[in-house]
Amino acid sequence: MQQLSVPKGTRDFLPSEMAKRNYIFNTIRQVYELYGFVPIETPAMENLSTLLGKYGDEGDKLLFRILNSGNYLSDIRPEELNPHNAYGLSGRICEKGLRYDLTVPFARFVVMHKNDLSFPFRRYQIQPVWRADRPQKGRYREFYQCDADIIGSDSLLNEFELLQIIDEVFSRLNLRVIIKINHRKILTGMAEMAGCAAMINDLTTAIDKLDKTSLQQVKEELTTKGFSADAIATLESFLAIKGTPAEVLQSLTHLFSSSETGQQGIRELSTLFTYLNTMPLQSRAELDITLARGLHYYTGTILEVKSAEVQIGSIGGGGRYDNLTGIFGLPGVSGVGISFGADRIYDVLTQLGKFPAFVEEKIKVMFVNFGPAEEKAILPLAMGLRQRNIPCLIYPDQAKIKKQMAYASGLQIPYVAIIGEEELKNHLVTLKKMDTGEQTQMSQEQFLQMNF
Amino acid sequence: MQQLSVPKGTRDFLPSEMAKRNYIFNTIRQVYELYGFVPIETPAMENLSTLLGKYGDEGDKLLFRILNSGNYLSDIRPEELNPHNAYGLSGRICEKGLRYDLTVPFARFVVMHKNDLSFPFRRYQIQPVWRADRPQKGRYREFYQCDADIIGSDSLLNEFELLQIIDEVFSRLNLRVIIKINHRKILTGMAEMAGCAAMINDLTTAIDKLDKTSLQQVKEELTTKGFSADAIATLESFLAIKGTPAEVLQSLTHLFSSSETGQQGIRELSTLFTYLNTMPLQSRAELDITLARGLHYYTGTILEVKSAEVQIGSIGGGGRYDNLTGIFGLPGVSGVGISFGADRIYDVLTQLGKFPAFVEEKIKVMFVNFGPAEEKAILPLAMGLRQRNIPCLIYPDQAKIKKQMAYASGLQIPYVAIIGEEELKNHLVTLKKMDTGEQTQMSQEQFLQMNF
User: Fold this and answer.
1) Are A150 and B396 in contact (CB < 8 Å)?
2) Model confidence, pTM
3) Which of A22, A208, A374, B329 could tie A1 with a disulfide, CB 3.0–4.6 Å?
């Protein structure tokens, strides 16, 4: 027999996994829709000209490229067909690639369809993305992203509503989380006050590691990157500020006296925390001025969601960016977005045993099959349940009863309906509750009224 | 500005298209689940060893191949790097391809996971597939398939339930359809009685064109393929049989006197039509012994769904196959499946104007934004609606009222809630019904009880 496999880093999803994954996706989708977001989809393939140069050199290497159809070598000069020209040649024999995230396709979408969209545009998108990363535990080459963005509005109400969405999603999933909040302009303020404004990207990259490594290691990284001892000391004093959000923002107002950018960050976070005081979340939302997030396109508020129950990386995050569509020639479109890490949320729910039982219990009743005469009686009963939107199935073959019952157990079907010779004669149904084994006989009319 | 596009044959879906597409997908999904089918998903990419040789030479050419990551040329000998070796080289520089349909990945899935599945296994799968076909009207390079199959059971109850599913899906979509039914063994019976059993594939390929071309042209194709005049005359007499299903099957019983295979086909269709007589469908289900369906892996019942209202190709179909997983070394797994053509169903619904209004009307209420004080009053009202699962949105910016109203109209939001200075002072809400322009003032408590 041929040895079968799926490509490394990709997965099949069995029905029980699908049920749990759909529970997560549906929860996210429902909350997005409750807040007035509408769905879009983009093709799995994009032109490489759309994708290249948007994710840095590393990202470009991680794109899956699709070989041109037909004779993809017909326009290639012999000297290009050279084992040392693999990268250059790939640009000539592949025009398309699989999407790497949902953000760049969304930016392209907005520019292409701007005349068909109403701004502020609130879209959500739940689709797979592909990355030729080295597969490892919890990291896949095909995985779903669940993004929501509002573009074309500067209002901080958007940030607040995205926090409400995060809060509502995790509350519906029965997970306790901590939402960390910061602002890129506060990081810029720190950099300006420490005299290292030009090195802001190195600074955020280093600070971003604070929750994984020690302060000492971050300081060493900053030294290696060329930050002066004075600058590092100033930065350290900022990062050490403690207190309530209001207190911390108050301290920063004084310390950022000469950073207009820093002051703007403080004003915006003050507004955001005023929303949070007026309409408190169920989750803990905290100001964390050490939060940096690696992605350099963020320019305003940044968010990150951590589980309060399980030690795992972030399970959601987001932020505001000033110029999403600028890369495609449409400048000045500001937006703010969030994303949920569905695979990690799956792992957290599994680890805590918090998937509700109903998630896997879709089929409510199985009808045992004793042969054609009984089947004839069963068909209208199955139809009756289905008309009431109760999922059920008829065992299709006249197999041994033991085999049929084992099948129902295997599928976690809670009820089995038995119509044998006696039931057939007297128009009865025997209903077996599978978890207790309890059996009840009833008329067919009663059966059709049952709540399962 | 960079000229933006999506790869040819692929599409973006705007929110209004998504709403309509999801209406179709959700209807299909709900009915599949009502009949006890459970979802699975497989990766977009499969190993080319899984895909190649399963769709004929033509199909192999239509596979999208994914260039190997890293230096894909490192193991290639210089003589292989030859413009005349494009096809051979593609097999060396690409190990993976995008799935071409859901059937072959499903067969692979069943073989790989057979120990984790309960048989008979009823699965549905709704995912995109990719084909490097020449794009044309109504044919895309990326499109969704919506398949359901039952494998590991020979019972004709499965065929009947699949007919019930087709019937229920189109009934919920408010579309009138004709379901044509035939049996591959009846076609084999015809071929055997006409003395051309060895040419059954040529026969089905030719007969399959009967609904698009004339009988004369089909006869010419058969002549070209080497069928004798006698054989063609016999076949023609079979195809001319008319009557109720029972009458046609009766006639064939006599005509197929010496074809055991033909007799088996007749017996199976008789059983299926007995089910249909006992539990009639809402749709017209008819025996059509000229129905052939092109796919050669069908071995039993075959089905095809046509719109009764619009001239368009088939909008669904299916059939029984004896040996789905044999290609992967697991013989003897019989199954039967159906598939819905979502893109064509979309076109039919559009043409007939049969998408219900609620499909695009997801957001029920928009709150006009007059500034921070009003916003503070709006936030608990929006939360109140959301707690009742009523989707709503707050216009995020303090824009001109005209602009805000136009935004609500553009998004087809049926109600706009206005809280201005006066409403704020008196704890009121003015609710405007957008289609009539009618305005009603009410207390905030009344507003929170409203049904939208």
Assistant:
1) yes
2) 0.95
3) B329
